[in-house]
Amino acid sequence: MSATKIIHSIPSDPLTGAISVPVYQTSTFIQEAPGVNKGFDYARSNNPTRKVLEDVVAQLEAGHSGFAFSTGLAAIDAVLKLLTHGDEIVAVDDIYGGAYRLFTHVYEKLGVKINYVDTTNPDNVANAISSKTKLIWIESPTNPTLKVSDIQEIAKIAKSIGAYLVVDNTFASPIAQQPLKLGADIVIHSGTKYIGGHSDLVAGLVVTKTPELSEKIKFVQNASGGVLGPWDCFLTIRGIETLELRYKKQCENAFAVAAFLVNHPAVQDVYFPGLVTHKNHEIAKRQQNGLFGGIVSFSLKEDTQEAANQFVTSTNYFKLAESLGGVKSLLCHPPQMTHASVPRERRLQAGIKDSLIRLSCGIEDAEDLITDLSKAFAAVKTTRNYVKQ
Ligand SMILES: *Cc1c(COP(=O)(O)O)cnc(C)c1O
Questions:
Q1: Does ligand 1 have an atom closer than 6 angstroms to the CB of 141?
Q2: Segments forming the whole domain that contains residue 368
Q3: Residue 103: alpha-carbon gap to chain centroid
Q4: Which positions carry the signal peptide feature in this UniProt record (predicted)?
Q5: Distance in angstroms (rounded) separating the CA atoms of residues 377 and 168
Q6: Average predicted confidence (pLDDT) for the chain
Q7: Do 123 and 137 fall into the same domain?
Q8: Are residues 193 and 340 in the same domain?
Q9: DSSP 42
């Protein structure tokens, strides 16, 4: 979707002409007579500020309807509520940790079976499905090793058994990838990340392809009630105004950072789908509109937590924090942070080495980010030499 279209999909206020979207901070709406209203009756069911966000997100993802939730996990939870006892999910094996927790520790207890497979090879998906499979759940690219799955191929498999394909599109953003156009049925986002884009809110979004699915999600949204408040809807809309500009700059910075890391003597592996050496580069190139995202992960030659610790505490512009996608660059050490709850064995199997570091590139100047990383490498080296003496 072009920048022009995105910006002009955000309406001005029809009532007053206000160019920015008003924050309708209200719980209820006056009715002329019972059931006679202006399209809004209670703010859990609907709110005019939320409606603008939901409509804009539906357009961003080329879907039928959008739905805004209090967090990304609340959005995921709403989709899982389409299932019932005995249903099965086939899911990407290095799924977001919070989604893993919800799937395994909440839904499995309720009788939903989850089958985790490496979805970068569609054959693994085809082998894992059964007549009970109702959802195929992928992320592309994944966190933190940026594996890319072929959405079109997996959509065909889902269609063949009448299951829904759900794509967590948080990392690619709708700027790089529109999964519904590639055959997916539902897209979810952690709006906390690129869509919000300023590290100032948590939010979740669902976009559905068909009126039938929209009705189902709308029912769950109203029934369970995990909606996004009007002020955070306003901030998310404001974030979307610059989404294209931010995301492209972040991709550019990530490209420059990845090129720097590949040539650095202290670096072992670099994970970035834009590199021709990345396992899934070809499919990423085809599927992601020439944009490879703003996240770069890498491991150190000295593959220890201590070396990684020294690195992540030696940067200036890259701030040590969970989350990603904001205008300020962040870095984290997944084994001790986002993936601390995953046992070491499982982490190593998923390619998450002890020294793996994840960078979320912001919109600073690429030269400054590279200088920052250079200084951190130098700091690690100095400290390590000192320690060894
Ligand atoms: C952060 C994240 C989520 C969860 O979103 P919250 O807003 O933190 O609840 C889900 N999927 C991915 C890929 C994420 O990065």
A1: no
A2: 244-385
A3: 17
A4: none
A5: 33
A6: 95
A7: yes
A8: no
A9: B
Tokens encoding 3: 């920048």
Mean pLDDT of 128-139: 98
Based on the fold, state whether residues 211 and 289 are members of the same structural domain: no
Mutate to test the pocket of ligand 1, among 79, 80, 96 (most ligand atoms within 8 A of CB): 96
Q: For residue 325, which atom of ligand 1 is closest to its CA?
A: 15
Q: Which residues are catalytic?
A: 44, 96, 168, 193
Is 67 in a helix, a strand, or coil? Answer: strand
Q: What CATH code is carried by the domain that includes residue 358?
A: 3.90.1150.10
387 pLDDT tier (thresholds 50, 70, 90): low
pLDDT tens readout for residues 327-336: 999 999 999 9
pTM: 0.96
**388 pLDDT exceeds 90?**
no
Q: 171, 145, 149: which is closest to 299 by C-alpha?
A: 145
- Please state whether beta strands 65-69 and 204-208 pair in parallel, antiparallel, or not at all (unpaired): antiparallel
Same domain assignment for residues 327 and 189: no
Classify residue 243 as exposed, middle or buried by CB count within 10 Å of its CB (0-12, 13-18, 19+). Answer: buried
The residue among 206, 241, 276 that closes a domain is 241
pLDDT at 389: 45
Question: For the chain, how many structural domains are there in total?
Answer: 2
Q: Can you tell me which atom of ligand 1 is nearest the CA of 170?
A: 13
168 and 276 within one domain: no
